[in-house]
């Protein structure tokens, strides 16, 4: 599977059943869990070269390469194709890379809109709320299915980094290297505030129908679009918006002013909001934003104390213009790890692209990850 | 009218008629304009002690004191009562203070929801778009009505400061002192982006009904609430939210988690959104946010050149934690004035309260304004 182009093939596996339910941190269980994942590269005979990719809020299993039959000249590659591939930091010539869609998502893995085999219907808002630890429990079952004992590395940005952190706390001996990018061990009140407004936009949309919008053949499109437009502003930076859009607009004279989008930055946000409707589900958005709000692993001190003696090496990276998951949050995470005796190194990468920097390649970023994984 | 409590009495005046329409910068005219305003203090015999207050986006004419009959122990005073009153920076023992509701507003002065005498109906979205210069033209008519030639000072925060700046450009000889707080001569692309999302939330609400929601007996309450919740986050600062709310919440264990508001910061935003519905109109919100987006007086260089020889002294103030109208914007405004030979002094006040600082009293702020007005 090496070569210039990765061949991405989605696989599906059932990881929980009535006989072997996935017990959730909040007390409930899931009696049916399916996971969709992609893999790239080949597992070594010693099964010691596996790298696990944890995706962010709206990511999916298609982390790199092109799906079979896609034309690389027209199709977009997986969302982290800059990071994963032959000769790239997560080098598929060396590593066996596992990239699942997360629990609660809407791109193949079980989530609130998935058909519950017990009823033949989605569970909608009856789907239990999830903890980051539940996403990790699902990852662990996937590793068991693949018969992989230890991970050479777990790698994640944003919410993906939160999964990596939780995983090391839950299984301190299993992951050799943890790459945590643009993440947080505890969201700021402002971060929670933005997510709360996004949820308000979705849940107050008259077409939300108490979460059963699918039964009405609609989606809460106005709310979901507004949620994404707002969130997108927080994923970029003031300077990147300024550089790219400034005051460019369609209208010329004062007499052409209008309330509808006119400035280029408005058209851009409209586009971001519209395309999001086609690729993500509102219920998954509610569930996955919410589990980030509650994430606070070091508040559970008895749990965090299990890190004592943990040999996982952490590499923590933040970006100078990221104001949603800012450097202060990465520094706190690093200090919390160090306070428990864990080897953790933090660096801030200079980048104008805000939180989205973790998906891009500001100077020094990919090299830093590559060096750590060598 | 001096004394410990200001007696606030709203007055109403008709300032444009069919015979004397208000010609707007965009080319259209308003043939009926009513303005509601309050005054505090007494006009000197020489008519030279008038101070004009320009309010921000959602302000009104009730800038200071208590309305007649209100109990000061239970009622809230006017929105800038810290700034205006006996012995305060805008000292009503010395000055005759004029505080109108702005054109396009919804608190008495003509706006898109006002009844058009020609039809007996509101004009809704047929109301013409406004320029900051149109708000100023309305202010000028109010001064003419009050038979006041020159202003001792014009004072405004946020959009109010934009009105002050535009006024001096339009009438360089009329205002002796210009107090411009937390304002901008040209919004950032990010600032426009946030307002665009707010408008999207309102205009895409199914109860917007093309702006004619009043005919349906509804308001686009979901959209307007979301717009305000989001905007409110941008009016405060990350540090003020953190200090005040941190992760305080109602739920205790993992099994009490919920999608609905749980964290204190969420209840706070819900309250901000709900109370806004009762006090502001969606159409005014659209019109007034939009005129800020287009505001760019120094782009009209022939117009700005009229500042040459202008004797108005400017005091420009920004706040360290204001990220919506940040210090860079105040510095640019100051430099633009200085480049045209205008006396302008800028200072950044240290404050944790974000953009809303202009309504509060961080150390040094009120003293700075008081000194300038002495």
UniProtKB/TrEMBL annotation, chains A, B:
UniProt subcellular location: Cytoplasm
Ranges of residues in domain AB hydrolase-1: 50-359
UniProt pathway annotation: Amino-acid biosynthesis; L-methionine biosynthesis via de novo pathway; O-succinyl-L-homoserine from L-homoserine: step 1/1
Catalytic activity from the UniProt record: L-homoserine + succinyl-CoA = O-succinyl-L-homoserine + CoA
Function: Transfers a succinyl group from succinyl-CoA to L-homoserine, forming succinyl-L-homoserine.
Family: Belongs to the AB hydrolase superfamily. MetX family.
Binding site for substrate: 228, 356
Name the record gives this protein: Homoserine O-succinyltransferase
Keywords from the named record: Acyltransferase, Amino-acid biosynthesis, Cytoplasm, Methionine biosynthesis, Transferase
Subunit relationships: Homodimer.
Top EC class of this enzyme: transferase
A GO-annotated cellular component: cytoplasm
Sample GO molecular function, one term: homoserine O-acetyltransferase activity
InterPro entries to which the protein is assigned, alphabetical: AB_hydrolase_1, AB_hydrolase_fold, HAT_MetX-like
Lineage of producing organism: Bacteria, Bacillati, Actinomycetota, Actinomycetes, Propionibacteriales
E.C. designation(s): 2.3.1.46
Entry annotation: catalytic residues: 158, 322, 355
TM region(s), chain numbering: none
NCBIfam families assigned to the protein according to its UniProt record, in alphabetical order: homoserO_Ac_trn, PRK00175.1
A single GO BP: methionine biosynthetic process
Gene3D superfamilies for this protein: 1.10.1740.110, alpha/beta hydrolase
Major place of residence: cytoplasm
Site, as annotated: Important for acyl-CoA specificity: 324
């Amino acid at each position: 599977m090496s070569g210039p182009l990765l061949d991405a093939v989605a696989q599906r596996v059932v990881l929980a059943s009535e006989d072997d339910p996935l017990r959730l941190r909040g007390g409930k269980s899931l009696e049916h869990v399916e996971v969709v994942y992609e893999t790239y590269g080949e597992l070594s005979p010693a099964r010691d070269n596996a790298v696990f990719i944890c995706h962010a809020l709206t990511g999916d299993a298609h982390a790199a390469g092109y799906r079979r039959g896609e034309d690389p000249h027209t199709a977009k590659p997986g969302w982290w194709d800059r990071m994963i591939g032959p000769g790239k930091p997560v080098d598929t010539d060396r590593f066996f890379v596992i990239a699942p869609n997360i629990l609660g998502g809407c791109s193949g893995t079980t989530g609130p809109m998935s058909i519950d085999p017990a009823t033949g219907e989605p569970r909608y808002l009856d789907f239990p709320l999830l903890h980051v630890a539940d996403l990790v429990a699902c990852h662990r079952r996937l590793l068991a299915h693949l018969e992989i004992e230890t991970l050479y590395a777990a790698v994640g940005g944003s919410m993906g980094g939160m999964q990596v952190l939780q995983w090391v706390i839950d299984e301190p001996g299993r992951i050799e290297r943890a790459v945590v990018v643009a993440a947080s061990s505890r969201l700021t009140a402002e971060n929670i505030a933005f997510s709360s407004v996004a949820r308000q936009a979705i849940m107050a949309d008259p077409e939300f129908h108490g979460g059963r919008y699918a039964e009405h053949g609609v989606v809460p499109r106005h709310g979901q679009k507004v949620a994404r437009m707002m969130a997108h502003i927080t994923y970029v930076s003031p300077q990147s918006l300024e550089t790219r859009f400034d005051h460019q607009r369609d209208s010329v004279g004062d007499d052409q002013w209008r309330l509808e989008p006119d400035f280029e930055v408005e058209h851009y946000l409209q586009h971001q909001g519209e395309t999001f409707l086609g690729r993500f589900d509102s219920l998954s958005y509610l569930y996955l934003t919410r589990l980030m709000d509650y994430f606070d692993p070091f508040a559970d001190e008895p749990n965090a104390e299990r890190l004592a003696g943990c040999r996982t090496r952490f590499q923590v990276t933040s970006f100078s213009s990221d104001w949603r998951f800012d450097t202060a949050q990465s520094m706190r995470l690093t200090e919390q790890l160090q306070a428990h005796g864990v080897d953790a190194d933090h660096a801030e990468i200079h980048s104008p692209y805000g939180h989205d920097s973790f998906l891009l390649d500001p100077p020094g970023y990919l090299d830093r990850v590559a060096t750590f994984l060598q």
